[in-house]
Amino acid sequence: MTEIILFSAPGSCSRVATIALEETGAQFESRVVRFMKGEHKSPAYKIYNPKGKVPALVFGGEALTENVAILWFLNEQFPEAGLLPHAKTAIEKARLISDLNFCSSTLHPIVTRIRMPQFFAGPESIRAVWTAGCEVMREYFKLVDDRLANSPWWYGDAWSVMDSYLYWVFWRVEGAGFPVGEYPKFVDHARRMEDRPAVQRALAREATMTAQLESERLNFAPPGPPKVI
Ligand SMILES: N[C@@H](CCC(=O)N[C@@H](CS)C(=O)NCC(=O)O)C(=O)O
User: Fold this and answer.
1) CB 33 within 8 A of CB 7
2) Exposure pattern of 122-131 as b/e (b: 16+ CB <10 Å)?
3) DSSP letter (8 states) at residue 50
């Protein structure tokens, strides 16, 4: 059996790849990366991901980084899992990449501004960064909400890893004060995701990692929405 390791951190975007792996049914190890100890920036970890970030997938001894690439690779390795819709032509394939990149290149950076505004500003401007992030995010939440108006998943009746990516975006900003309730179809989508056994198993893996980090006093819980000063 191919050895599969996913370097992960609870609550981070490694959840997207974790859900994808759970959906394939493959056996894999979730190996926690201790942000609070700077493990992600250590030479030992940078062998797997020179950018010092999670996730990193190790598949049969080969390391792969970037969620989009990991999802694409897993879809090719496990075609029966239906991680992405079948694409015949070059343009159909490119559209799938375009959708996944929308999550990684457009939505993820806005998520970080809403969830971690302190990374981008001093104390006096944290709230302004958060507010600006929320303003920009509104347009995209509306886009997703509209797309989900008449179908359960991004690609209609067929679940895909695109839904996992959107779910992580939703969950991340829900806990950071973004008004997700204004987007009821997206709320329903998140709850549908949480009904999936693979998602429940992925969340259970994160809970195990969180317990491990707590036992080492290394758990990282980002602060809630910044207060108005
Ligand atoms: N484009 C990358 C983004 C990875 C990323 O930003 N990961 C975050 C967690 S969500 C991380 O490792 N942050 C730690 C840091 O940058 O110090 C991907 O999709 O894999």
Assistant:
1) yes
2) eeeebbebbb
3) T
Q: Rounded to an integer, what distance in angstroms lies between the CA atom of residue 176 and that of residue 130?
A: 9
C-beta of residue 146 within 8 angstroms of C-beta of residue 138: no
Report whether residue 176 contacts ligand 1, using a CB cutoff of 6 Å: no
Tokens of 59: 């598949």
Query: Rounded to the nearest 10 degrees, what angle do helices 90-101 and 67-77 cross at?
Result: 140
Residue 109 in contact with residue 129, Cβ under 8 Å?
Answer: no
Task: Output the residue whose Cα is nearest ligand 1's atom 20.
Answer: 66
Give me the residues paired with residue 31 across strands. Answer: 7
pLDDT tens digits for 167-218? Answer: 999 999 999 999 999 999 999 999 999 999 999 999 999 999 999 999 999 9
CB atoms within 10 A of CB 34: 18
Test site for ligand 1: of 6, 7, 8, 13, most ligand atoms within 8 A of the Cβ: 13
Domains (ranges, CATH) in the chain?
A: 4-82+198-215 (3.40.30.10), 90-196 (1.20.1050.10)
Q: What are 15-63's pLDDT values in tens digits?
A: 999 999 999 999 999 999 999 999 999 999 999 999 999 999 999 999 9
Averaged pLDDT for residues 8-19 = 98
User: Is the shortest distance between the CB of 12 and ligand 1 below 6 Å?
Assistant: yes
